[in-house]
Design a protein that fits this description.
Elements lengths: L1 E3 L6 E3 L4 E8 L4 E6 L1 H4 L2 H6 L2 E8 L7 E4 L11 E3 L2 E7 L9 H14 L15 E5 L6 H13 L7 H11 L13 H17 L14
Parallel strand pairs: 4-9, 5-8, 5-9
Antiparallel strand pairs: 1-2, 3-4, 6-7
Helix pairs in contact: 3-4, 3-6, 4-5, 4-6
């Protein structure tokens, strides 16, 4: 079954709330999923799939994820405290309007979340290194572009080009061919390709590699 968006004549087809894109992302050894707002908010599903980290690419989407409110929250203040999972927010526009460097920032934010080493303190309770979900509102544009960039740069033997990575993510996310012209949006694909070129010039070192001198 499909439905037509009131803002577009393009039908949006039913697909899973989250889709497994890569079973084992090297060198981190975790699975990578892509989803939309329904998936990121389905806590039982996230726990069933072993997802402990969520990267939200959408500037126009937030979620109430605090399940352990801080007792110091004052009257009239929004609730804050520990969330149900480790949560990172990128905040891309789904189309034109993003700063040129935002896709690059998203890539390093995602890699940083995967490699981050948390201190042994009670204020960092979510220590599990589980699987990761990258989401946006529909899970068909912003998150797809970012995950394709991740696969291409982290696993170039399997995904030697951005086109190869994009095709893989589109298929695994069950994006139909009549959606591909806007899923992801062309300017987001262009931003991912530009970021790919910049990443080759920058390089980076994970915290676990700091003492070995190894650089990716």
């Amino acid at each position: 079954m499909n439905q037509t968006s009131p803002q577009s004549n393009v039908p949006h087809y039913d697909r899973p709330e989250i889709s497994l894109i890569e079973e084992r992302l090297e060198p981190y050894g975790v699975a990578v999923y892509v989803g939309g707002r329904e998936g990121m908010s389905n806590l039982p599903l996230l726990r069933e799939r072993g997802i402990s980290t969520v990267i939200n690419c959408a500037v126009n989407l937030d979620v109430n994820l605090v399940d352990a409110p801080d007792p110091s929250v004052g009257e009239g203040h929004l609730t804050y405290g520990h969330g149900a999972f480790r949560y990172y927010k990128l905040g891309l526009v789904d189309g034109a309007g993003n700063a040129e460097t935002m896709m690059l920032a998203g890539y390093y934010q995602l890699v940083g979340a995967l490699s981050q080493i948390l201190p042994e303190r009670s204020s960092y309770p979510l220590r599990e290194r589980g699987n990761v979900l990258v989401n946006c509102r529909g899970g068909r544009s912003r998150s797809v572009a970012l995950v394709a960039l991740l696969l291409h740069k982290q696993m170039p033997d399997r995904y030697p080009t951005m086109d190869a990575a994009l095709e893989h993510v589109r298929i695994r996310r069950q994006l139909r061919h009549d959606e591909w012209f806007e899923a992801p949006k062309p300017m987001l694909i262009e931003a991912a390709c530009t970021a790919s070129d910049w990443i080759d010039r920058i390089g980076h070192r994970d915290p676990e590699q700091a003492d070995t001198g190894q650089t990716k």
